[in-house]
């Protein structure tokens, strides 16, 4: 028996499920990037709104690159199970907020049609850092990225989020419809402003009049999103199927904690997501900086060091003194220059993070977090580093964390058959292979301006800290670094 609308009433009594009439739901939201994170985060918040009786916010969920989620959830009428797991408690909930699923290139015309439809009020995004096609260091649109170039050459059949948003807005304007709000839910500083910059730069290349209209009319609120959501494993599937007494092709396992802080700037209304626990605030920049630097900065550090020390999950990595000591030092460096949101004690925030990272019920793979380092390091680690350098403060922990990334890429470069999951992998791997001398390797990697800009390589104090961190890690008995270093 498969999870689907017809079988909802056969679920065990302890499994939460939609109590509203799904047949009456209209689609106010199109979500691009309908992966695990969206399903553990925004979709559950929207579920709470639907459950309150406001049925205008059903979500059309689209995967741009893959049909996998569509193929798994369509036979289930969009239903899926969310397992919230803390160290000592668990709750299963079948979520109904996603009413229709689309995926892959063939569905893109349908995605566009939904975005252009009058009932759509919000287009939300979880497309990861690289989905915005911006150079992370300079913020410039990557005009030569093949996908962007293809969309610019053929703007009526777009394949990127930028092309889709601009074409859908063009269609709406031509039809006399007001624009939707673009709601970025990715881990980027000022994610709304970032989305706006990318969309405007793209639109400008196609039609400057349309770009002007977008500039004046379209809202791009910023958000801070947070919920640790590992990729689903076969063991998770088997567990959920046993609990449900029916098959769910793609359940999601997440932590109990959830946080969503949103700038309240929507042109066509928005769900009352406070019903799901969201907060509307105009201090997003501070929330986002705290989360990116404390949580994600520590996550990336854990991920690289975990990979170097054979710790496959975050909870395992949190058992190693090498890692926990470095994290404590890192958080001290971050907090010293952090501007926290009003009323928030960042030291408490960090204490809570430690508990979340130690949650033994989540199998969050360090390899999953380690991907796309080039896209993550700037906002997670380098932003704090630059603030400290500007104030003349030393940053040995941040430097050691970056050295961890360097050892990680070096290991990939020297391990036959290994791949580096990163949009800049070719460049990174060729630089990492350049020499067995640590100083040369660090210099080469720091010269990748798309990650490090031009300032850091020239900072002697930072270079010395980076080299020291790199040597310390190479000498650490817990670390399996690349074999052929000339130390
Ligand atoms: C993680 C994030 O994969 C990663 O890079 O750091 O996905 C992290 O789990 C979320 O931002 C938590 O909200």
From TrEMBL:
Keywords: NAD, Oxidoreductase. Residues 284-472 form the Mannitol dehydrogenase C-terminal domain. Residues 28-274 form the Mannitol dehydrogenase N-terminal domain. GO terms for biological process: mannitol metabolic process. It comes from Rhodoferax ferrireducens. InterPro entries: 6-PGluconate_DH-like_C_sf, 6PGD_dom2, Mannitol_DH, Mannitol_DH/Oxidoreductase, Mannitol_DH_C, Mannitol_DH_CS, Mannitol_DH_N, NAD(P)-bd_dom_sf. This is Mannitol dehydrogenase. GO terms for molecular function: oxidoreductase activity, acting on the CH-OH group of donors, NAD or NADP as acceptor.
């Amino acid at each position: 028996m498969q999870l689907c609308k017809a079988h909802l009433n056969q679920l065990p009594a302890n499994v939460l499920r939609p109590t509203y009439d799904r047949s009456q739901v209209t689609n106010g939201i199109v979500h691009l990037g309908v992966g695990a994170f969206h399903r553990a985060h925004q979709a559950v918040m929207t579920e709470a709104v639907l459950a309150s009786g406001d049925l205008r916010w059903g979500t059309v969920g689209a995967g741009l690159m893959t049909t996998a989620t569509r193929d798994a959830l369509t036979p289930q009428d969009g239903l899926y199970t969310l397992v919230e797991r803390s160290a000592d408690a668990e709750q299963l909930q079948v979520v109904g907020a996603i009413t229709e699923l689309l995926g892959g290139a063939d569905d893109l015309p349908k995605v566009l049609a939904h975005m252009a439809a009058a009932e759509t009020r919000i287009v939300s995004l979880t497309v990861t850092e690289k989905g915005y096609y911006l150079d992370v260091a300079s913020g410039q649109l990557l005009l030569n990225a093949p996908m962007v170039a293809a969309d610019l050459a053929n703007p009526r059949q777009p394949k990127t989020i930028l092309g889709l948003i601009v074409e859908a807005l063009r269609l709406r304007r031509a039809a006399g419809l007001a624009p939707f709000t673009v709601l970025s839910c990715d881990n980027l500083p000022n994610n709304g402003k970032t989305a706006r910059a990318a969309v405007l730069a793209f639109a400008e290349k196609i039609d400057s009049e349309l770009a002007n209209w977008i500039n004046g009319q379209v809202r791009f609120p910023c958000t801070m999103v947070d919920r640790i959501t590992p990729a689903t494993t076969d063991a998770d599937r088997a567990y959920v199927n046993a609990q449900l007494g029916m098959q769910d092709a793609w359940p999601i396992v997440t932590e109990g904690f959830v946080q969503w802080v949103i700038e309240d700037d929507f042109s066509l209304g928005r769900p009352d997501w406070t019903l799901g626990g969201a907060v509307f605030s105009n201090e997003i920049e501070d929330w986002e900086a705290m989360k990116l630097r404390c949580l994600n900065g520590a996550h990336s550090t854990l991920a690289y060091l975990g990979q170097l020390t054979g710790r496959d999950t975050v909870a395992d990595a949190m058992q190693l003194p090498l890692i926990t000591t470095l994290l404590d030092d890192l958080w001290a460096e971050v907090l010293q220059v952090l501007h926290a949101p009003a009323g928030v004690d960042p030291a408490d925030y960090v204490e809570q993070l430690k508990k979340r990272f130690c949650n033994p019920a989540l199998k969050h793979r360090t390899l999953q977090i380690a991907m796309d380092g080039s896209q993550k390091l700037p906002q997670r680690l380098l932003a704090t580093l630059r603030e400290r350098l500007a104030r003349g403060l030393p940053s040995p922990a941040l430097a050691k964390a970056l050295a961890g990334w360097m050892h990680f890429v070096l290991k990939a470069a020297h391990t036959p058959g290994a791949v580096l999951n990163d949009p800049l992998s070719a460049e990174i791997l060729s630089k990492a292979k350049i020499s067995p001398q640590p100083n040369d390797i660090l210099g080469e990697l720091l010269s990748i301006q798309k990650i490090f800009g031009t300032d850091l390589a020239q900072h002697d104090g930072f270079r010395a800290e980076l080299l020291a961190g790199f040597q310390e890690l190479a000498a650490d008995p817990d670390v399996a670094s690349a074999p052929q270093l000339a130390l």
